[in-house]
Design goal:
By secondary structure, the protein is α/β, with parallel strands linked by helices. The chain has 23 helices and 26 strands. The strands form 4 sheets. Strands 1-2-3-4-5-6-7-10 form an 8-stranded parallel barrel, surrounded by 4 helices. An 8-stranded mixed sheet has the order 9-8-13-12-14-15-17-16, covered by helices on one side. Helix 20 links the parallel strand 14 and strand 15. Helix 10 packs across helix 11, helix 14 runs antiparallel to helix 19 and helix 16 runs parallel beside helix 17.
């Protein structure tokens, strides 16, 4: 069995992925088929009743069907669901341990039985029927177990769950618990979530806030107008306090869980909140990844499967490829001590999706981008994502595993030594100040800036926490710089490693202390100065200012927000984007042009192409180009300002030698023995398949691996 070097891949596997009738419940057959040693396998039992109603191991009993496959689905592509027992599961975990593989008990949030799913399967949730007081009470949904609630006797569900989880893991010999969608957090967003008597009581106890008597009157009907009125009162009068309260409660929940499981030598893994980056997770769900880090969570699996979400006909979601590809990087900056695993959505028989087979170029793109982003740590530069989490890993054939092995081995082969494209600067202090700022203005978050710039070719190659800024080299991008505290502004002012690009609100008249902006512009399409975003840059030297700002002449806002920001209704489902203040596309284009103009890269793309540039070992410069279009190939022309010594297409496509750009503007392939044509070339062409990616390594004459 091969080992994946310089990276890891964990698997999310329902029990249907193993053959219960084989010796060791099919563990050996399964591992032989995947062909490499995964770092861990989350045994996806789905229904949290496997923990909540654990009966011990005194006697053997048969599991409900939804323990054996996600939502109780009848089969996957390899076999029909088998009747697993508690003894079978213990045997399987033991066999995986013998192969040196860590195991997790994977569960999702419980739903009440009356909820039908679009997967067409049923699921029996006995624990919730026994304890209806734990069901979420909110006008946005009343089907989920809400793990922050209390039993009727006043005791906390979390205390019960911790003890049951400890007993369950000990009995099965499993190494940890993995909590995912619907459990942490439940399906509803905070603005339409649980505002029951229980949660209101906890809120008053924890914060000391005195609420009007009509708000605290007992409500027994979860669909009553009184509950909606209570929800709106809290959301519009005490929104920040409510969000902080829920965040503290989730941190308490995980602190108890981690303390209990860590005492037993067990671990805690959790998915991020419905695909959310750090700020969105706090605002929409009350999940603070920094709080999870403080609580001791061992790993977070990031739901960054942009292609799967977009291609699912039931979602109607936009293609959030640029949003999702930035999330693991920013999460690593915010919670650097937590392992970050990027979900690679390969195939899901229950949800009837197979990105690996049906949109393979997009799958390769996600693997490449997620593994390329860098984290500039205190001691070293590493990948921002620690590895992949295969979703789901139960129905892949041997040939399909071979494809994934090949892709993983390629991206894990080496890590870039640095980013030539700008580096994002992250500040926890900025994050803390952003919540009230967002509610008052709906200005863009750091993640929103990076995602929108990425669409226009303003690519970010890595991230550095501001206290580690001395580790960075080259251009840096500092969003929301006006929210940095004085000591961090001084750190920023002292940076001499390259150009500094920063954003602010125009009304604040911000500039870096002691550094006059070499270029500054605002979004001319936004009338109100207190909402208008602006960009400045220092340490840049000469550039073509007219070319950078050219798009601003056509700036216009297509869909302005109506009303005061605080009172604009928030969406209550994760498939609808978080609301942000309008900005013109032309303003974003100008910002992206500025980022490309200040990048000391040995080569420029011919237009606003999506190209990220890295420094590699042996003097190589790596160009990674992306194609958003699902139906057309794309040529990206890279114009270099150095003589090319060697050029290598590291992608599988195209098979032909790369075309070179000659001085007269023509294209040619170098077939000469001495490479004369290559040395005289002024650039090269990257050919990208639909929805895919192209990766090219170049060695230039002289030391082009460093910034000019």
């Amino acid at each position: 069995m091969m080992e994946l070097k310089h990276g890891e891949a964990a698997l999310w596997t329902p029990l249907v992925g193993f053959d219960r009738d084989l010796p060791g419940c099919g563990a050996e057959e399964y591992l032989e088929k995947i062909g490499f040693r995964p770092s861990a396998i989350s045994l996806f039992a789905f229904n949290a009743d496997i923990i909540n109603l654990h009966k011990g191991m005194a006697e053997e009993y048969t599991f409900p069907q939804d323990y054996c496959n996600y939502y109780g689905s009848l089969r996957n592509e390899l076999r029909s669901v088998q009747p697993w027992t508690n003894y079978n599961l213990k045997e399987l975990a033991g066999q995986l341990h013998k192969n040196g593989i860590e195991t997790y008990m994977g569960v999702m949030g419980n739903h009440t039985p009356d909820q039908t799913t679009w997967f067409g399967q049923s699921s029996t949730q006995k624990f919730l029927l026994q304890h209806p007081e734990l069901i979420m009470q909110g006008y946005g949904g009343t089907h989920n177990l809400y793990a922050l609630k209390r039993f009727d006797d006043g005791t906390y569900f979390e205390d019960y769950f911790v003890e049951m989880a400890r007993k369950t893991l000990r009995d099965y010999g499993i190494d940890g618990v993995h909590l995912s969608d619907g459990f942490c957090p439940p399906n509803s967003t905070l603005n339409s979530g649980d505002f029951s008597d229980d949660l209101i009581g906890q809120f008053v106890e924890m914060t000391g806030i005195s609420l009007p008597s009509e708000i605290t009157l007992p409500l027994t009907d979860s669909k009553s107008a009184g509950l909606q009125g209570r929800t709106q009162y809290i959301w519009y009068h005490y929104r920040a306090e409510w969000i902080r309260f829920i965040s503290r409660r989730w941190e308490q929940f995980f602190a108890k869980l981690c303390k209990g499981l860590h005492a037993d030598g067990k671990k805690v893994m959790v998915n991020n909140s419905w695909t959310s980056e750090p700020f969105e997770a706090i605002y929409r769900y009350g999940i603070d990844y920094k709080g999870l880090e403080r609580a001791g969570v061992d790993a977070i699996c990031v739901e960054d499967q942009a292609t799967a979400v977009h291609s699912c006909d039931a979602s109607g979601a936009a293609y959030r490829i640029h949003e999702y590809m930035q999330t693991p990087m920013i999460m690593k900056a915010y919670a650097p001590n937590v392992k970050i695993l990027s979900i690679n959505f390969a195939k899901d028989s229950t949800e009837e999706l197979s990105i690996l087979n049906h949109i393979p170029c997009a799958n390769e793109r996600e693997i490449q981008i997620l593994s390329s982003k860098l984290y500039y740590g205190e001691e070293q530069i590493s990948r921002a994502s620690d590895g992949f989490f295969v979703c789901l890993a139960d129905a892949l054939h041997k040939k399909e595993w071979g494809i994934l092995r090949e892709k993983y081995a390629a991206v894990f082969e080496e890590t870039a030594s640095g980013s030539v494209s700008p580096i994002l600067v992250w500040s926890d202090a900025m994050m803390d100040k952003f919540l009230p700022e967002y509610m008052e203005t709906r200005r863009w978050s750091a993640h929103k800036f990076v995602a929108e710039l990425s669409k226009c070719g303003g690519k970010i190659g890595g991230v550095v926490r501001i206290e580690n800024l001395h580790r960075a080299k080259g251009a840096i991008f500092v969003p929301l710089a006006d929210l940095l505290p004085e000591e961090e502004l001084k750190t920023l002012a002292d940076y001499q490693g390259g150009p500094i690009i920063y954003t602010s609100l125009s009304a604040k008249k911000f500039q870096i202390p002691g550094k006059k902006a070499d270029i500054y512009f605002e979004d001319p399409a936004v009338v109100r100065e207190d909402y208008r975003m602006c960009v400045g840059a220092a340490n840049i030297g000469y550039l073509d200012y007219a070319d950078v700002t050219l798009p601003l002449a056509e700036a216009q806002v297509d869909h302005p927000l109506k009303g005061e920001p605080r009172y604009i209704p928030d969406p209550d489902v994760w498939l609808v984007d978080l609301l942000f203040r309008e900005a013109s596309e032309q303003f974003v284009q100008a910002c992206a042009r500025l980022m490309r103009a200040v990048t000391r890269a040995p080569g420029k793309s011919s237009s606003d192409e999506q190209v990220t540039v890295y420094r590699m070992s042996g003097g190589r410069v790596r160009y990674i180009a992306e194609n958003d279009c699902f139906s057309q190939y794309k040529d990206v022309l890279i114009h270099t300002n150095r003589e090319i010594c060697q050029i290598h297409n590291t992608s599988d496509f195209p098979a032909q030698p790369l075309k070179l750009l000659l001085a007269d503007g023509s294209m040619a392939v170098d077939c000469s023995a001495d490479g004369k044509l290559m040395h005289e070339a002024k650039g090269f062409v990257m050919k990208i398949p639909p929805a895919g990616i192209s990766v090219v390594d170049v060695i230039f004459k002289g030391n082009a691996n460093e910034e000019e």
